[in-house]
Known about the structure:
This protein is of the alpha+beta class. It has one domain. 24% of the residues lie in helices and 28% in strands. It is built from two helices and four strands. It has helices at residues 3-10, 55-64; strands spanning 16-19, 28-31, 34-41, 47-51. It has a four-stranded antiparallel beta sheet, covered by helices on one side. A hairpin with a 2-residue loop joins strand 2 and strand 3.
Amino acid sequence: MNHQQLIDIGLTKRGTSLRYPFDPDLPVLFVRDKMFALLGHTKAGIPSVNLKTHPDEAWLQRETYPALCCQDTI
């Protein structure tokens, strides 16, 4: 799945909008006035997605799916 596919799916949800609050090349999906998904790239040019979540849930996801976390390439 690429960024455009994520944007297309995200925009089907009620109350969701696409904005560029930081940079014209850094799309962000909002749900109402809350940032939900930041779509960017690592320094190596690899597409990345940062999703808003509760800290405890994020920790569990990183522990359960370590291949999804690429902090060393950011």
